[in-house]
Amino acid sequence: MRLSDFDYDLPDHFIAQTPLEPRDSSKLMVINRADKTIQHRIFREITDYLNPGDVLVMNNTRVIPARIAGFRADTGGKLEVLLLRQLDETTWRVLIGGKQAKIGMIIGFPKTDITAEVLEATEDEAERVIRFSQPVNDLLVEIGDTPLPPYIHTRLDDAERYQTVYSRHDGSAAAPTAGLHFTPELLLKLRDKGVIFAYCTLHVGLDTFQPVKVDNIVDHKIHAEEAMLTAENAEIINKAKLAGGRIIAVGTTTTRTLETAGILSAGGDPSNPAALGDVCPWKPVVAFRADTQLYIYPSYKWRVVDAMITNFHLPKSSLLMMISAFAGRELVFEAYETAKRENYRFFSFGDAMLIL
User: Fold this and answer.
1) Domains and their CATH numbers in the chain
2) pLDDT, tens digit, for every residue of 31-42?
3) In this structure, what DSSP letter does residue 120 have?
């Protein structure tokens, strides 16, 4: 498939600039893959579609204040550092905006004596590895800001609104936005109905906002992201699946984590899932903690996920390719055109989709 197969027109007024209140008042488009139907609901009505014994799997990563204003120590020129991933106590992989950041350059930060040195460049022209003069984890709340996506231009007054209510583990440069629709009350209602909860962790990196740039989508190289599924949560998922429950992934990051666990269970390599061929359509997931470079696009053989909750994604993005692999490209693009006619809100603060 070509990159142009995953392009669509979206006027700017469809891009949600602010989150709705309450969280679960967003629209919910329900897509049934079996009969190709599309329904329009409100997100809190998702309880009508989840059954006792189903497992709702959520990514409990937490967004850090990863956007830091800085300046070149030699010239005073302004620049911005976006923390992508911590490598050790003081070393981070980052994205630097501003004048070209050469190896050896020293970066200063306003109202602090902290500095950082650029150690190396990566394959991406804007990415660098830097070393801070001291650990900054505990200082990010003071010197950093919430790294909202570049298509959001409205200031977010409450940073917690870009966190899921179940976020626990610091490490993401972006929120797993499908989970932003859940409220504590909705989760309690699902629990009381008999829906089982499980959690994974995938720290969301740069690829969330990066469009695919190669014409042949098979040639796209996805960034590695740190992911984890504990033995306790793997056991919850496996027991429920064997008892007849469905595995419902909240978001594309959860989907990548679960499918990685299924590929590892089958003895495969997540960076080359096609090498497994048409193995058993479901494998027990295994606990793991590792980087994943799993790239899901049409022709992917699904092993774990039965249903998916997701937002509406950017044109030409790997996330759009993933849901096209899950629901079929034609049905997904029909749904997107329907969403525009029905004035759905798109992207991170937008409305949701449940794919059954």
Assistant:
1) 3-63+159-355 (3.40.1780.10), 67-145 (2.40.10.240)
2) 999 999 999 999
3) E
